[in-house]
Design goal:
336 residues, alpha/beta, 8 strands, 45% helix, binds flavin-adenine dinucleotide, NADP
């Protein structure tokens, strides 16, 4: 099922959430995740789940395996795909396999910056022998999927509420520099937008407001789903925020630092911080675009923190009553 159809089917004032998982390296890891996914599917009932893709196609087989597992658990799946530093045949195989598995959703990403061993910009690199790969930016992948598959896939793209950060080439993050490109890839055929995680909720709200009121109009009616990273531990929090150049506002930093020696307290403060962020976004009158409000969780394959957060924020949808299920079943059988 397309996530966009599922979002459209919700009441306008509804909230929903999605969960992101990465493919475990070992069969034992996958088995553990299988059990966790099953529990989360039944207990938390996300509207959809995302399966990440290792840059350069490094996890191609494992990502497809995990995506297939998610589908088999009845979870609507978004498969991430990157397009640079990767042979086109890997990309074509992934799209074809996704289709065979009944996956209707792709998050189209660029992936890591192509290696700049010659210090050329990315376009130059391709002109100077990028092999069979015509992809330089995510927009190229969006166009390619549309060209090859028409409307079969709902396509998502990434956005950065604090500005895109390139770890290899640190330049000041600047949302206004990214905006024309976000417009371009959205206009090229994106159906939804998912963001980098953040802790600066004001920055997120003003980012979404800029998009919603953008004169191009391309962001007016598109689901924009803020990315949230639950705090799993002090070390992970420090590492991920640094790695992704995500700002930690003073208020958040003080609270986490004050309990950094106590793992349980770090988690508890993290849950409260995320809960407050969700409430602020949900209550903001400047965002949402009149659409159901979604939240995306980077789970790092962990269950507890996100379970507490969606529970405390009342994001878990009710199970349809047995009556409603019966009616749906009847309808599914169709005439005769
Ligand atoms: P793009 O949209 O191509 O943008 C990259 C940069 O280039 C930006 O600075 C943009 O402003 C600029 N740019 C775009 N078009 C042009 C142009 N025409 N001319 C000049 N500059 C341009 N990575 C993975 O490897 N696997 C994953 O599963 C994964 N999942 C992610 C999920 C989310 C929600 C997010 C936010 C990121 C994810 N990433 C993942 C990381 C992502 O691949 C990297 O951040 C990557 O470096 C950029 O990808 P993009 O799709 O945003 O790139």
């Amino acid at each position: 099922e397309k996530v966009t159809d599922k979002i459209k089917a919700l009441p306008k004032d509804a909230t929903y959430f999605s969960l992101e998982f990465f493919p475990p390296k070992t069969p034992a890891g996958l088995q553990n995740l299988h059990a966790r996914l099953d529990r989360m599917a039944k207990g938390l009932r996300p509207l959809f789940v995302n399966v990440t893709w290792g840059a350069g196609g490094s996890t191609a087989t494992k990502s497809l395996e995990l995506a297939s597992l998610c589908q088999s658990l009845g979870l609507t799946t978004v498969l991430h795909l990157t397009c640079t530093n990767m042979s086109k045949s890997v990309l074509d195989d992934a799209l074809e396999n996704a289709k065979l598995m009944g996956i209707r959703n792709i998050l189209a990403l660029r992936g890591d910056e192509p290696r700049h061993h010659e210090y050329l910009d990315a376009t130059e690199q391709v002109r100077n022998g990028g092999g069979d790969n015509e992809f330089v930016y995510a927009v190229d992948l969006v166009k390619y999927i549309r060209k090859q598959y028409g409307d079969y896939f709902a396509i998502g793209v990434a956005a950065y509420p604090e500005g895109y950060a390139e770890s290899a080439y640190p330049v000041a993050q600047d949302t206004s520099r990214d905006l024309p490109y976000l417009r371009e890839k959205t206009a090229a055929g994106a159906d939804f937008i998912m963001t980098q995680f953040f802790y600066d909720v004001e920055a997120y709200i003003s980012f979404e407001k800029v998009l919603r009121t953008d004169e191009s109009g391309v962001f007016k009616d598109i689901p924009i789903i803020p990315g949230l990273m639950p705090v799993q531990s002090y070390q992970i929090f420090k590492r991920t925020t640094k790695l992704c150049s995500v700002k930690v506002p003073d208020g958040v930093s003080t609270r986490i630092e004050s309990v950094k020696a106590d793992d349980e307290m770090v988690k508890e403060h993290g849950i409260r911080i995320l809960t407050e962020m969700i409430d602020k976004i949900r209550n903001s009158t400047e965002t949402g675009g009149g659409l159901p409000r979604g939240f995306h969780f980077y789970t790092l394959n962990l269950e507890k923190a996100v379970a507490f957060i969606v529970e405390r924020c009342s994001l878990i949808p009710e199970i349809p009553t047995s009556n409603e299920v019966a009616v749906e079943d009847e309808e599914d059988e169709g005439p005769g």
